[in-house]
Amino acid sequence: MTADFDTAEPYRLNPAVALRPESFGALAYHFGNRRLTFLKAPELVELVRDLGRHPTAGAALTHVPEERREACRRALASLAATDMIIPWRGGTGVQP
Amino acid sequence: MTTQAERVPALVEQFKGGLAAPICLTWEWTYACNLSCAHCLSSSGRRDPLELSTAEMKSVIDELQRMQVFYVNVGGGEPTVRPDFWELLDYAVAHQVGVKFSTNGLRLTPDRARRLAATDYVDVQISLDGATREVNDAVRGRGSYDMAMRAMENLAAAGFGEFKISVVMTRQNVSQLDDFAAIADRFGAQLRITRLRPSGRGADVWDELHPTDAQQRELYTWLVAHGDRVLTGDSFFHLNALGSQPIPGLNLCGAGRVVCLIDPVGDVYACPFAIHDAFKAGNVRAAGGFQDVWQHSDLFADLRRPSTGGACASCSAYDVCQGGCMAAKFFTGLPLDGPDPECVKGHGAAALTAVDPTATPRPSGDHSHRTVSLGMPAVRTARPDRLCDESPLAGMAGTAGTAATTGTTSTTDGEGERS
């Protein structure tokens, strides 16, 4: 499940993952692999939560201020590597 | 694993202020136990008549689901002696509260192991305190080594996957660390090691069983070398002062911040090692339930305030050891803002010489098996089988609940920050 993260592809939050709001951002729990991940900025939480609404991960990243975009891209890549976010092949870019 | 979008305070700093809900919640389901381990941190043995009913247990599970407590560490006593154990396990899993339960193996028959292997969100932790029968049974009682081994064989044969083997480190078994790792490898299990605390009956044996200074160093060195394959929770952060390389795991005291305990009668304590009125934050039976205790109790608010380090503040190691374990200090009679009794700089040992050993705090409750003058356990020979029976074997003749669905795997499960 560690396909390379590609910003030209659509991604979404894995349906097996729940986000619990915390003061620093959120705690993400993957019910499948039981991994806990800490999203340490509210901005990243928003990005991850709304990822599926964008046609590509790159398009979602354009909503992040430029100076923090690269850090967020790296965060998404690490979330993709742990199956927290998954390629979204629906193609419409619209999450049902 | 940590995902960092930009410069923010270290996660450990965030944790100190507490979370919206615990991430490492220990929930003891009964004080009843078939064993009488010498170091039992909850002084278990006999069921408490006030233990939460099945309906009350389910209502707590409902609340944990609402609070998004994604999994709980279930213990006891021996949790599987509750007649409703399997029913509650299934209920929790069905309500998105995963369960990792600790057991001495009593009920892990081949059939039960197969059903567990087919249940998602369930993990099993077998307690074993010696890599040999001799060392294990000296602490956990005769027959307990064979019982644990049988349970592990059953889990492995059922294809359960990576269950946990949980070891309390003592003076008798530090030298067996490699042997424990080999046992874990043999069963495809993961080793978890924790610290012996002077809590519950542990207070009675702490002096003779807690690791020596040399063994603490051995343990630290072993963890630095092998820690990535071993779970430790927040057990050993006090050892970090032994070197420049921090050991893997959660390096702070999580009590009341990310950790807490719900005991069998619903009392909420700051951590599993602190069953004493001084660390009791409330009870889940109260109007606001568990959530109100977690979020609003005075005790937990206090634990989440920044601490100054007290007598330890001037120590060069304070940043890494954080003053050590609150419960270990408390039950050895040391002040909470001073050194840990196992302080690797020797400050704890020095402080202990000033403590009156007869005046140390005792646990609030003792559910130990009563013994008669000949040292025989007061176990009934008849077979009463009522719900209120205090025998831990009550209900054993009954059939257990059902388990379903597909395979299981595991990784972190509340064993602290992995970055």
TrEMBL record, chain A:
Protein name: Mycofactocin biosynthesis chaperone MftB
Pfam families: MftB_chaperone
NCBIfam families xref list: mycofact_MftB (TIGR03967)
UniProtKB/TrEMBL annotation, chain B:
Keyword annotations from UniProtKB, A to Z: 4Fe-4S, Iron, Iron-sulfur, Lyase, Metal-binding, S-adenosyl-L-methionine
UniProt superkingdom: Bacteria
Domain Radical SAM core: 15-229
EC number in record: 1.3.98.7, 4.1.99.26
Region (Disordered): 389-419
PROSITE patterns: RADICAL_SAM
Protein name (Swiss-Prot/TrEMBL): Mycofactocin maturase MftC
Naturally occurring in which organism (per UniProt): Streptomyces boluensis
